[in-house]
Amino acid sequence: MATDPSDEEFLQAVEEHVSGRGGTVRLTLPGAAALDRQQLLDARIVRCIETRETRDRRVPGLRRAEIAGRPACTDLAAHPVDPPVDPARSRTLTLVRAGSLDEVACEGCEGGTRDCEACGGRGGRDCPRYVDCDVCEGGPDACWECDGTGTPRTRRAARAARPRPQDATRRATCARCERPEVACPKCLGRRHLDCPVCDRSGLVPCRGCGGRRRIRHTPCAGTGHFTVWTEGIIRHAPDEKEVKRLAPLVVRMPTDATGDWRETRLTGATDKLPDDLDPAHRALLEPELAVKDGEVRRRVTVRRLPLARVTVRDDPHRVYYAFPARSGGIDVVGLPSRQRVLHVTARASAALVLLALAAALVVALSR
Fold this sequence. Notes:
By secondary structure, this protein is α+β, with helices and mostly antiparallel strands. It contains 6 helices and 15 strands. A hairpin with a 5-residue loop joins strand 14 and strand 15. It is elongated and about 140 Å long. The model is unreliable at 155-161 and 340-345 (pLDDT under 50).
């Protein structure tokens, strides 16, 4: 197993980095620099969780031959199934319990059809045989002589008092009392007309069945039968968890891009974590590795990278981060220290305040 760089190797790498920027320091001398070692962690736990359940199935039609071709089981709990090679892969297996497959007649219909509920199996719905005349509105004006009753008036005075408009010639002979020029020209004194919808039959075709009286039974899809069986379902679903302790944000991209991360992969519940894992990270990971209910396979990937934080006594305004690189050497990233960032920020803020005051003064003097 590769060993982590020593403190001296980290300091020498920082020396070379500083020298490349035009500085000259000897960081390996006592008190010249302070070094804080830490380990970055990037762990991913992927488990395959298996669940098993049964459910009663019922589908329309005679489908015994089709369903019988599916895998069968006697005892779902004891049925052997190999988990996916890759625990991150999802999979669902459906089985048919032996002896449960059957075909039964539909109890809600006869041969796939049933009486139309909208018309009660009559094939139509009631409709008025007659409708009021839209000219005389079915009132007494249907006939000026008999009021549409068929019985003429008996009193001459009453007939004489009846108004006769100038367009009386447009009236027709009443079909009931047979008086000329007194009846509504459309209904001829009958007060009503034959219904145009049912043609005086009193029945119109049902919209639900179209007059056929019976309709297709939807639950059985018009087959009149169901295929029933007990289905067993075995599901394999991934369960993923990440445990990370990464570098500060400003250093994260370099460590991710060029860092020589050491990787260990565990596939068994009894596999041991790597010996070089930081004790704090070990305490963080071990509880996460307990076997979960239904776990049938796992893959644990543990990646770690040593990181050294170095501060130089003669350069308090910068902090250096050093870590092993895939190239075989040690990469160094230099950044302004927190105190330096705060100092620069404070100076910039002060400058902005002075600029704002100056602008306000110019505006005041120009008025």
